[in-house]
Write a structure and sequence with these properties.
With 438 residues, the protein is an alpha/beta fold. The chain folds into 2 domains: 3-156 and 364-383, 3-Layer(aba) Sandwich (Rossmann fold); 161-191 and 222-348 and 390-425, Dihydrodipicolinate Reductase, domain 2 (2-Layer Sandwich), CATH 3.30.360.10. It has 14 helices and 14 strands. An 8-stranded mixed β-sheet has the order 13-12-11-7-10-9-8-14, covered by helices on one side. Helix 5 runs parallel beside helix 6 (133-146) and helix 6 (133-146) runs antiparallel to helix 13.
Length: 438
Amino acid sequence: MNRRKFIASSGLAVSAPFVSRHSWAAGSPMQKLQYAAMGIGGRGTADIKALAGHSKVKFVAAADVDSGPAKKLKANYPGTKTYSDWRQMLQDGRESIDIVSISTPDHMHGIMGLSAMNLGKHVYLQKPLAQNIGECRALRQSAERNGKIVQMGTQGASSKHDRTAVNFIRRQLIGKVTEAWVICGKSWGDLKPLPNQQDPVPADLNWEGWLGVGEKRPFIEGYYHPKNWRRRQGFGTGTLGDMGCHIFNAMYRGLELTAPRKVRSKTRTPNQHNWTTNERVEYLFPATRHTDGNLTVNWVSGRERPPKALTAAIPESIKYRFGCVLKGEAGLLVLRHGNSPILLPTKKSSDVTLPELNPIGHHDAFVNAVLKGEQKGLLSPIEFAADLTEFILLGNIAMQHSPRWLEWDAMKATIPNDKQANQQIHRAYRDGWSVLQS
């Protein structure tokens, strides 16, 4: 769809593009990447602060369906142009915007990321990379086709904690890993049925824009926007989708895992509107040089916990409500989300030298990669982010077909043993919503 057809079909008004950016060719003293944000509130606030704070970035525009955060942003960043429709922002800045951040509900990640790359933008995209596996594949293909740099917003991947954990795993300080448990102490599920009600849409909210590619439905006060959409199928991705990309990161990277062969859920099936609570998902991964044969990886959330036979060796003083427990041939490795890893028994750690790690800013790394024109140094580049998000979202599909094992053909991106589950790999966008083309 060309610009004229897009404007006509969307009903958007034509407005002047941004002033062309200063040259940011290598060596130019005026290097400035023009930056635009999609999603202003919540996580978007932190992403804007980090990206706009880079000395080589000029924050020029932002889009959000809620005008409340937009008013606050204008006060903090005077001169920044704000939009209620991200599509208009991309069209106006098609010749001038260099980088974008996407910090919206999960269901909009795919269409926004694909549209931005088609229009020539590099993308900082919040986790999970997309709401479904099909979009993950499409985003990776788009980045490669358009030659764009993408960093997923799993900032912990660049932390010294995660990087130290990866170092410990690859040094095989507990020997080869025989068992793995990934733990999340919170729950984004909801077992209650969809309320039979319809409330007035707030005057400052563009509800049609918030729904975006999602199914048309009435506004319910406090049910979707601004904080509970993660619980809702079709919009969020539940606890596993929300936190999995963070907590799996060090283990998945350190063990050099590939795609799982199969997955199953051992928890109750979600209802048709919401994700479930207290998740328990089991993946079977092929062996790597760091594992003792094929590896079973278990995900538990909410009130679900690893077996006491495994955790009995962990002192009560060690808190790992969010983290990972790896059992190896010669001990345990406890990876604590947002904290340093711990080797058990503790006497093992006295002789272990810590790796010498330079600090890495996750957002800064993305900007620097764009300026250099290469993604070397990124710890959540599109290739890694797509593979990680894919298998995590596969667990969400398994929860809807519990307790059956679902086989996974990663090469073809299909579930060959379950036609119904296979249909959930992709989603259809609502009428009126399609990926923007150059």
